[in-house]
Amino acid sequence: MDARIKYSVLLVGIGIIIAFLPFNTAETFRVKSNILLSRSASEDIYYSVDQVARMMNNEDSTVQIIDLRSTTQFKECNIPSSVNIPYPDLLNPIWEGTFNQRKIKKIFYGNDDQTSTYSWTILTGLGYQNNFILKGGLNEWFKTILYSKFNGIKISPVENALFENRYNARKTFTQINSLPDSLKTKFFSSKRLKQSKLDGGCE
Amino acid sequence: MDLIRTFITQSMGPISITFEFSEWINLLIAFLIGIGFGYSLEQAGFSSSRKLAGMFYGYDTTVLKVFFTAAIVALAGSQLLSFFGLLNLKEVFVNPFYVNASILGGIIMGAGFIMGGYCPGTSISALSIGKIDAMIFMTGGLVGAFLFAETFPLIQSVANDNFKGPMRIDEWFGVSPGVFTLLLILAAVALFWIAELAEKKFSRPDITSDL
Fold it and tell me: Residue A86: which of A72, A98, A76 has the closest Cα?
């Protein structure tokens, strides 16, 4: 058989196979279950409320805090500088830009650890990097940052720094959450991240 | 160690995104790919303006065969790699589409291609083996690029008009990428056969024997 016919048949055959393949299977889970298990068992995926409060106070630009609660709950109160991605809407492509960040840490929180743990597992499994969980969620935030008091007689420098950090976070939290809705929306939309993109091209 | 661990757990392309190479490694990879590309262009005879002009006159259709083969290999290969979980197509760069600029630029480039006998890449390939016409062609290209940059504020509206963003043809046609790949392969095979017929019909032994 003529080589040209052989190559043509080969090319068309490959084309027919590809025509039936699902597109971009990379969107499915691609981290192996044992690796996902070992990562999820590590304490390194958690941030404490004090750590997050410090990031918030310092306006840390390498961190994006993500509120997984419903929009209604988010409007009632939220951790300042966080963005709202309701958990059922997690896989909406509009959030691709927020998740597809390799140099920014994404810290998830819900009322407790449940939705943030689910989200961590799904996004890490899909191959997104730098996902973290706010340990204890908003319940822990309220308990530690908003309501905790120093009950001792003499405060040590370490405790003083800790409570100063909590006090500053408490103040920001109260101020931001008492803003009118219009100002809050403007503030939150300015926090939306753009997707990291591969630059390229050809002449 | 981190790089090895990342490779084991995240062995998926595009590698420059997965591994976050430093600038010099990215440039080194580009340099090595450039050597391969330049070598292949030269070996395929693309440093000859007569061979490239042959595409227009029909006596030599190597350009069509090489570039169309490259396109279908890249297209089919990227989708197979994606299917086997080795490439995330969502992270592959898609050129933004400026409709007016593409049409206008295409006409200018096509005219330049047939008049000069080179495209930008092949002119560098020809320059590297010391062809004088390639030197003149490249000088012209650089002057053109300089004029474009200097007059950009005047032509900005034309250049940026009718912007469609990073658009893919399969999305435009409303077919799956796999079906589009099959259609392109069929088009390539048909064009290869037509090209062979054209080479016989418009053969120029006086030129092709020298190539």
Answer: A72
Q: Which residue does chain B place closest to A16, by CA atoms?
A: B182
* Residue at A136 is within a domain: yes
B195 neighbors B64 (Cβ within 8 angstroms): yes
Number of domains forming the structure of chain A? 1
Range of the structural domain that residue A99 is part of: 26-189
Give domain status of residue A194, yes or no.
no
In a domain, A125, yes or no: yes
DSSP code of residue B88: -
Residue A132 included in any domain:
yes
A194 touches chain B (CB under 8 A): no
- Tens digits of pLDDT across chain B (211 residues): 555 555 545 556 667 666 667 888 889 988 999 999 999 888 888 888 888 888 888 899 988 888 899 999 999 998 888 888 788 777 777 888 889 999 999 999 999 988 998 988 889 989 999 999 999 999 999 999 999 999 999 988 888 888 887 788 888 888 888 899 999 999 999 999 999 999 999 888 777 666 6
The enclosing domain of A84 has a CATH number of 3.40.250.10
- Give bridge partners of residue B13 from the DSSP assignment: B87
Distance between B72 CA and the closest CA of chain A, angstroms: 9
Query: Is-contact B94 B167, C-beta < 8 A?
Result: yes
Cα distance from B10 to chain A (closest Cα, Å)? Answer: 7
The answer to whether the pTM exceeds 0.80 is no
